[in-house]
Amino acid sequence: xxxxxxxxxxxxxxxxxxxxxxxxxxxxxxxxxxxxxxxxxxxxxxxxxxxxxxxxxxxxxxxxxxxxxxxxxxxxxxxxxxxxxxxxxxxxxxxxxxxxxxxxxxxxxxxxxxxxxxxxxxxxxxxxxxxxxxxxxxxxxxxxxxxxxxxxxxxxxxxxxxxxxxxxxxxxxxxxxxxxxxxxxxxxxxxxxxxxxxxxxxxxxxxxxxxxxxxxxxxxxxxxxxxxxxxxxxxxxxxxxxxxxxxxxx
Length: 250
Fold this sequence. Notes:
By secondary structure, the protein is an alpha/beta fold. The protein has helices at about 15-25, 50-60, 65-70, 125-130, 135-140, 150-155, 165-180, 180-195, 200-215, 215-230, 235, 240-245; strands spanning about 5-10, 30, 40, 75-80, 85, 100, 105-110, 145, 160. The protein has one domain (about 5-245): 2-enoyl-CoA Hydratase, Chain A, domain 1 (Alpha-Beta Complex), CATH 3.90.226.10. It has 12 helices and 9 strands. Helix 1 links the parallel strand 1 (about 5-10) and strand 2.
C-alpha cells in the first residue's frame, strides 16, 4: 500500500479536515504556506465568537484550545514547513509537533500579552513543555518576535534550515515516516502525548481565561488601539511586536 502524505495550507488545519484526511488514509500531513512572508497570522480577534462556536460543533465545547488539543491527539502526524511569520503555532501543533523553519525568513511570536490576554488555544501548555518555565515566560510575556535560529535554540522548533533545503528535507521526512507501519507510529505518538500533552482540563482553563480576559476593559482598550494602528493588516503585522510595544503610549 502506497503511504499517503498530504500538503495543506496552515489555515485549513481543523478537526473536520483532520478527520477527513485520516479517513482517506493520510498518515502524514505537511502544513505549508504559499505566501513567503506569512506562514500563519495570529487569531482574528473579530471572529473569536465564530471560532468558538465552530469548535463546539466539532469537539463538543466552545474552546479553540480543545479543538487544537483534539488535533494533537489524532492519528495524523503533522509537520510544519515554516517560512515567514508564524504567530499562531498552536494550529500546527497536531501530530508529533515536527516544526522545520527557513533560517532566513521564519519569525515566531506569541503576542497575546501585548493585548492584555493570555494565550488561550494551547500556547501556554505547549511552550512551557517545549522551552521550560523561564524561556516560555520570556516568549509569552515579551510578545516579541524571534528569528528561526533563536527559536531553534529555545526548543520552539525542531530545526532551522536554509530556505533552499527546507522543502526537500520536509518532503523526505514526511515520506520516510509514512512508509513505517501505522500501528507503530500511532503507538509512539500516543505514548509521547501521554508524557508531553497537557490534560484536557488545562487547555479548557486557558481557553476560559482567554475568553474572560478578552472582555476586560483594559484588553478591549488595547484591542481597539491596536486596530487603529493597523492590527490585522498585512503591513502592521510585518512588525507586530513593534506595534504592541507602542500601545502603552496611546
